[in-house]
């Protein structure tokens, strides 16, 4: 575990006093009875607390709803997988033979769980301050690369907010075509914004999905025009 300890401790900013905690945080239930699930439970709570504290302090003008949206998007599986990949956890996970052969080291749910387990392990090894610093070491650089105001918002919401901010009429969405049988339909939707002379199309397995695709195309088109 020496090399693992060196690499992970460097990125987390925490040197484990009890190497067994780090080992358990990297152990899947398919490998041994002493696995990471209890640490994952602990780490999940600590992660939510640290992120909530950080957002509350750093964005004093945000409403409770905005803070909740940001927190939920920062602690969801897809975000945790990014950190797992940054830490190269797939290389270090201890998986049973079957899980390893089926690609468990790439499975998003396993990678996300292992990140939470690591945070739980740091907490038990060094206390809340150490766990908080480990979380921030991962999250703060990520937050610097994303637009915190739009993180987690869908395309229709972003487009609506853009238009409302400029006192323009909201988009008109209309279904232009429907193909396929009832349970396998493909919807085509048009998004029209007359004030900006924009008309885009989107397609999806539901009207909602098609509208989102059309809205995304319109939002991106607006962005390109203003670059």
Query: Within the largest sheet, what's the order of strands?
Result: 1-2-3
Largest sheet: 3 strands, antiparallel
Looking at the overall shape, the CATH architecture of the largest domain is Orthogonal Bundle
For this structure, what is the CATH class of the largest domain? Answer: Mainly Alpha
The number of helical runs is 11
Topology of helices and strands:
Blueprint: H1 2-12, H2 19-25, H3 37-58, H4 64-74, H5 77-87, H6 89-92, H7 97-101, H8 108-126, H9 128-145, H10 155-165, E1 172-179, E2 186-193, E3 198-204, H11 207-225
Antiparallel strand pairs: 1-2, 2-3
How would you characterize the overall build of this protein?
The mean pLDDT is 89. Helices cover 61% and strands 10% of the residues. Strand 2 (186-193) and strand 3 form a beta hairpin. It is mostly helical. Strands 1-2-3 form a three-stranded antiparallel β-sheet. It is globular and about 65 Å long. It has helices at 2-12, 19-25, 37-58, 64-74, 77-87, 89-92, 97-101, 108-126, 128-145, 155-165, 207-225; strands at residues 172-179, 186-193, 198-204. It folds into two domains: 2-145, Ribonuclease iii, N-terminal Endonuclease Domain, Chain A (Orthogonal Bundle), CATH 1.10.1520.10; 155-225, Double Stranded RNA Binding Domain (2-Layer Sandwich), CATH 3.30.160.20. The protein has eleven helices and three strands.
């Amino acid at each position: 575990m020496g090399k693992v300890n060196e690499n992970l401790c460097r990125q987390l900013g925490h040197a484990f006093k009890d190497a067994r905690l780090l080992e358990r945080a990297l152990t899947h239930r398919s490998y041994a009875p002493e696995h990471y699930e209890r640490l994952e439970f602990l780490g999940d709570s600590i992660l939510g607390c640290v992120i909530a504290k950080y957002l509350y302090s750093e964005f004093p003008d945000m409403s409770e709803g905005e803070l909740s949206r940001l927190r939920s998007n920062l602690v969801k599986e897809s975000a945790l997988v990014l950190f797992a990949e940054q830490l190269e956890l797939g290389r270090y996970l201890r998986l049973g033979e079957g899980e390893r052969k089926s690609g468990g080291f790439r499975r998003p749910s396993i990678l996300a769980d292992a990140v939470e387990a690591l945070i739980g392990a740091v907490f038990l090894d060094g206390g809340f301050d150490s766990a908080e610093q480990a979380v921030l070491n991962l999250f703060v650089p990520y937050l610097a690369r994303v637009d915190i105001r739009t993180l987690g918002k869908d395309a229709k919401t972003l487009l609506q907010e853009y238009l409302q901010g400029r006192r323009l009429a909201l988009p008109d969405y209309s279904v232009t075509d429907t193909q396929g049988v009832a349970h396998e339909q493909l919807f085509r939707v048009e998004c029209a914004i007359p004030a900006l002379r924009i008309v885009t199309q989107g397609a999806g397995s539901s009207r909602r999905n098609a509208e989102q695709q059309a809205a995304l195309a319109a939002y991106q088109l607006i962005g390109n025009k203003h670059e």
